[in-house]
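Q: What residues go here?
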């Protein structure tokens, strides 16, 4: 004789409880996942307030690079006037590098919602003076040393808490290019004293080529074998800097 089948609880009721439990867990999981996702763009803080220090530093650097570009162009003109063609060529290359930095700093400011003054407007505000080529070389050496050893490390430390990777990258590029500038003029430092005449004669007789990377401002007298040593861009990004008429 067959036994009676076992009693079962009402299937619909069990299914309803299971479905409700699954829905609840699904909602909890979705909420936790949402917390882990990056904040949407519409909820990101205003760049002007989120990157106050970064903007301030970029503004100073932009103005400084425009001033440096104009100053080295003036040094170039003075050197040509005094017959120091190769020294003028070096000043022209450094001026071109400073222009690359200024352009990128300007672009970063625009992305952060700040419209910088145009180079032409800044030129009208700046008073650029020159002395003899010997004194201009000494001044250039002092400025490059200060920027390399003091200013750029301070700027990078100042913006570090705001963690703007683009600004850190561009400022680091400029800093490394400034170190190349120092290498270009380090032999000139001793020549700005009593041996300047000998130095100038050597520069007149030595033909040097200068190349500037249009992405980072790297300034070299010989192109690297594969890529830019600062930013890693292809060699096609280097532009040879020539004096007018050369």
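A:
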């Amino acid at each position: 004789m067959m036994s009676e089948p076992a009693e079962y609880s009402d299937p619909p009721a069990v299914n309803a409880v299971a479905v409700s439990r699954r829905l609840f867990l699904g909602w909890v999981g979705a909420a936790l996942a949402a917390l882990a996702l990056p904040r949407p763009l519409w909820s990101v803080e205003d760049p002007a307030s989120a990157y106050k220090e970064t903007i301030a530093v970029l503004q100073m650097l932009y103005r400084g690079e425009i001033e440096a570009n104009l100053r080295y162009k003036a040094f170039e003109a003075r050197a040509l006037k005094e017959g120091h063609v190769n020294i003028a060529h070096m000043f022209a290359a450094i001026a071109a590098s400073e222009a690359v930095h200024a352009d990128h700093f300007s672009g970063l400011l625009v992305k952060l919602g700040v419209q910088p003054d145009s180079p032409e407007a800044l030129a009208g505000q700046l008073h650029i003076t020159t002395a003899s080529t010997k004194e201009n070389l000494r001044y250039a050496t002092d400025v490059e040393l200060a920027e390399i050893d003091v200013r750029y490390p301070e700027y990078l430390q100042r913006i570090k808490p705001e963690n703007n990777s683009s600004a850190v990258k561009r400022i680091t590029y400029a800093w490394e290019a400034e170190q190349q500038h120092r290498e270009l003029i380090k032999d000139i430092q001793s020549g700005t004293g009593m041996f300047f005449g000998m130095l100038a004669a050597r520069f007149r007789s030595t033909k040097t080529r200068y190349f500037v990377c249009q992405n980072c401002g790297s300034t070299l007298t010989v192109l690297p074998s594969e890529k830019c040593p600062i930013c890693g861009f292809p060699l096609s990004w280097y532009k040879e800097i020539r004096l007018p008429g050369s």
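A: Context that may help when evaluating the design: Strands lie at 210-213, 219-220, 238-241. The two ends are 115 Å apart (CA to CA).
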